[in-house]
Amino acid sequence: MAALTARRDHAAGLRAPIAVIGEAVIEDFKPRHASDRVPRTGGPAFRIARELALLGHASVFIGSLGQDHDAELLTEALEDVGVRAFCTLRDGEATGRLRLTQKKHRVKRKVEHPVTQRIDFDQQQLDTIDQAALVVVAGFAFHDRKQHRTMLDAVLQPQNRLILDAKPPICTDDDLVLVRERLERHASSALLVHLSASDAELLFDAPVDEVTSYLLDLGARNVLATEGSLGGRWVNREGLDVHEPAAKLDGPVIDTVGAGDLATALAVAQLIEHREAHGPDVAVSEAWARELLRRAMLLAGHRIRGIRQLVNSRAAASS
Predict the structure, then answer these.
(1) How confident is the model at residue 309 (pLDDT cuts 50, 70, 90)?
(2) Which top-rank group of organisms is this from (predicted)?
(3) I need a labelling partner for 193 at 20 to 30 A (CA). Which of 48, 88, 163, 209 fits?
(4) Concatenated DSSP letters of 26-76
(5) How far apart are CA 286 and CA 8, in angstroms?
(6) Whole-structure pTM over 0.70, yes or no?
């Protein structure tokens, strides 16, 4: 196997980069009421890494791709915004490709190519994780025992560094029990867990508010819960519980894919900036959480209507 590194690195600042580990795929997307499909780059970890770069934060992507043209498209799309990619390339395998069809408030998924999921965690990838300011995990193959153990051992001080998105990888319907059990192991020591209402139902067969409390009981320091049209919540072990409704905007919903990834990226960016201002051990305030949720709901509301509004997160925090 080989590591693929982006050729340009113009991500901002002298900060240690944020490592994003997980899934990158090509999506053949059909918007609601559209007749044609549009191929595009995607996957939860891919989107979070790109959004972080667009928010002004140096990020690196660690994942697994096939040796094909789709892998080139994905790494070039990362490179275009200054994200370095350290990817395991799987011999003889195709990069994951999905068919996504937007319905009224949900997305129908069909797998065209199985998603390549095994990351080698070679020395370059492990060094990147070790040096990262934060480690974000999204769409990760927790059902793979070896990969789960390697990642668990690689992220030192997870209570101060690990951001966990509870979205399971594609093609794991038969392994959801394992995904849940191993995700819980990581969540028990995570700085932040992002949980959507749909993933709460899929993995835990329970409403998102119940799963949020459960994750805090396990040991997660903070939970960001996104509930679609019901808005979002920030809850932590210090007793903070802040809710913000979804933004009320005009226009039809066109594409809900990636709204939660945008919220995760914004939370990560503003956590980094909170640490820079106040130190790593100072808990976030109610005002901080409310402003984060307000901005996340506004940006997500525009995004699902096909309007890209993304500003530097420092400006977002003060707007």
Answers:
(1) low
(2) Bacteria
(3) 88
(4) EEEEE-TT-SS-EEEEE-HHHHHHHHHHHTT--EEEEEEEESSHHHHHHHH
(5) 39
(6) yes
